[in-house]
Amino acid sequence: AQSVTQLDSHVSVSEGTPVLLRCNYSSSYSPSLFWYVQHPNKGLQLLLKYTSAATLVKGINGFEAEFKKSETSFHLTKPSAHMSDAAEYFCVVSAANQAGTALIFGKGTTLSVSS
Amino acid sequence: SQTIHQWPATLVQPVGSPLSLECTVEGTSNPNLYWYRQAAGRGLQLLFYSVGIGQISSEVPQNLSASRPQDRQFILSSKKLLLSDSGFYLCAWNKGVGEKLFFGSGTQLSVL
């Protein structure tokens, strides 16, 4: 069975410092992995996705994530946080099986950025 | 605690048949309710959202409709399915616009 665990419910950083949002997954099949962001008063936006190509995936707004199969992790990082990065972040695993393709959402990590 | 239920988990339907996907939320009142779809190779797309009973907003023109007959019940329907309706459908809820979203387990719909 597929599952995804976001290890931190809340992360607080200062503007200009690195961001690390952690995500571990479990999948019986070759997974596709995604990070979505939800800004206050806005809908979900796709940040980046991994679909078995390069293990280091670059997304929008300077974010990137590295797929590590040995650690079953897909952590999201950014070298320097900006105030506008404050939002809710969801790690998502998509795994194909005989029935089709399912999306499993993590519980989300709230990122706070202080000046 | 709040929980969200979505069913069925998988559905295979012929072209032209009707559709009804149901979503219910427990443990809260007057939630905002959402239907999302992910088509193959694409991100999540918001289809409908509702801020109250009988209040439905549609984000994209399509072959689908939504209804909210009760406070914590959200139904996605179609009178005649198209091949392009195939995809993964997710129900979600939150306390209000911009609040954290909580997702159902999803429905994989295959239209053949």
Give a structural overview.
Chain A has 115 residues and is an all-beta fold. Chain A has one domain (3-114): Immunoglobulins (Immunoglobulin-like, Sandwich), CATH 2.60.40. Helices cover 0% and strands 58% of the residues of chain A. Chain A has no helices and 12 strands. In chain A, strand 7 (56-58) and strand 8 (64-68) form a beta hairpin. Chain A starts with a strand and ends with a strand. The mean pLDDT of chain A is 87. Chain B has a single domain (3-111), classed as Immunoglobulin-like (Sandwich), CATH 2.60.40. Chain B contains no helices and 11 strands. Chain B is globular and about 40 Å long. Classes of the chains: A mainly beta (115), B mainly beta (112).
In short, what is this structure?
The complex is a heterodimer of chains A (115) and B (112). Chain A has a single domain (3-114), classed as Sandwich (Immunoglobulin-like).
Individual helix count of chain B: 0
Low-confidence stretches of chain B: none
Chain-averaged pLDDT of chain A: 87
What is the number of helices of chain A? 0
Largest interface: A-B, 23 and 19 residues
CATH topology of chain A, anyone?
A: Immunoglobulin-like
Task: From the structure above, extract its key features.
heterodimer, A: 115 residues, mainly beta, Immunoglobulin-like, four-stranded antiparallel sheet, B: 112 residues, seven-stranded mixed sheet, 11 strands, globular
